[in-house]
């Protein structure tokens, strides 16, 4: 999904053992860095990308990059690496399985956010990084931030988890399940064994349309589109794939339909269906308590009282480094503000900033001015030595 | 979808002209009544059913029925009729088009909630009803309640709209669009021309699964399922249709997945895909201002300021009969409480009851004890003459 022209640095490891016990061979990690490691090696910022993001931070969080902004390359050595299973370069279902000489496709083994963190740590080691000043990320990126601090205690000093959660909720698992069913249902999916030139574009577009409901909020749809009607003929023609139907002609075509179809259609050229399903499964495994506290992973008919599980989570959060900056978007329906409030209540001396916005979950990308302001203020306070000049 | 054994009364009209100008011939209206019209003819209660409901109120709102409850057949003559396009008896895509001798299928013309109200009014005329004491309904039923008062001014004295809205929001139109795309994508759908014995079951199940996200709330999924894992082999076997995949076996199977699959699979035997799409389109037309105020239905690039549209809506609501009982569910993400607050702010002397519940939109069905209590209290106050014995 990247052309050779804009290829990022890649570290190739002969092998990498996943949390599941499965060993991947010849593992690529695509990453990107900005700025330079200072003499004290105390200016490392790790950016963790969300679901459909990549190491190319400028493609999805560019308003935060630049001199005087949150991602200030004159002060920080900034690092972002692509996660396992993502189509943007790191080993994924699109990669060749050395044992077969063919792409892994649906046979690509399950990975976890902890696998990503351990893999990316190897790249940091390779780059001579000995500690990280701050890790920042939204949504899945925020999950990764939390795992950085838990997988390598003491290595990441400060954390900025945004619009994220300590564990993937039943609600998020449910959204993933609906997207999975939509993709499985497409005959072009072929159980994941689709040819590279005939991917299940239609299903991927519809899954993306479903996702766009969860990424915004009722209010944002109302503000942007209301009940406005769009000229049908003009807008249908634009789509790369056919999302209209003969029946459409007899009904008003609302602007919000047009928006969803355009977004769904444009997504299919940028993402792979097996990668999409893989990352949903990865996020489903997210539970910082898993295998760390005695009460994790309740099994069938588990008698574990919820209160005990809550206490275990609170106890684990209390072990994290103090003074994170936790950011919420007030209208986030995917990772609602109470999930970040839980982080802030239990991590020592946490700052919680709730950004009042109708943007929903995507507010972590959209409300860049307010996020930038909160992050810069926080970094200046926590790292005065990096802001002294 | 009903067997001859439990057939409800049906009124057949030789023809019925829809709001669109199209005339349907030989139109059936399936309805049901409970109790008896009193001598004063002032004890009529109209119940308006939601999307997947029917005239058989006892099948979906039974906890509200009975002596001393909201639907007290010793006090009220209660009426509920099935809407156009629903699979439960009233003329729909499943009905025979007299002009072709075949089922309408996807050719069934668009209908509106106003069509339903006008059609059901004919049944009330036929039953000798000259006025309605109170109309009650949730979700689409609440939309219908509002249209009753607007289509026949003075005919319906009191209204109890629950978890509903004055106009279908962009958000709800968007959910409908995603469900429509899911169904269109199923090759078994065949543009709606599927054989009666080979309906697009898989797509309908997935659309239902998507719907179940919108009908509940993040909190309700968390409370019910959390991250609990279910025994896979046991639960997969139950489903009437295949919603699992070989890939599943390698991943934890969360209880919430099992819930969604079971609900999706069980829905397909009870509803028809063309009817499902028809009613989504019907709800999309819902806008009480449409064709009633000069500012309705903004067209492409309409310059109409939102403030003016809001003012038109407020002005129209102010013409409704006073003292409705408006009920919200606090966690409703489909028709959020602010949409009912808008009704209550603008209809004269409205009572607004917000039921604090994690049940989400489905709270109008689930929170029956608190709804029953609010409704009984309201009815006793508004209709003392019916509660004097």
UniProtKB/TrEMBL annotation, chains A, B:
Source organism, top-level taxon: Eukaryota
Molecular function GO terms recorded: homoserine O-acetyltransferase activity
Domain AB hydrolase-1 residue range list: 43-366
GO biological process, one term: methionine biosynthetic process
Any Pfam family the entry gives: Abhydrolase_1
Keyword list, A-Z: Transferase
List of catalytic residues: 139, 332, 361
Stored InterPro entries: AB_hydrolase_1, AB_hydrolase_fold, HAT_MetX-like
Family: Belongs to the AB hydrolase superfamily. MetX family.
Protein name: Homoserine O-acetyltransferase
Phylogenetic placement of the source organism: Eukaryota, Fungi, Dikarya, Basidiomycota, Agaricomycotina
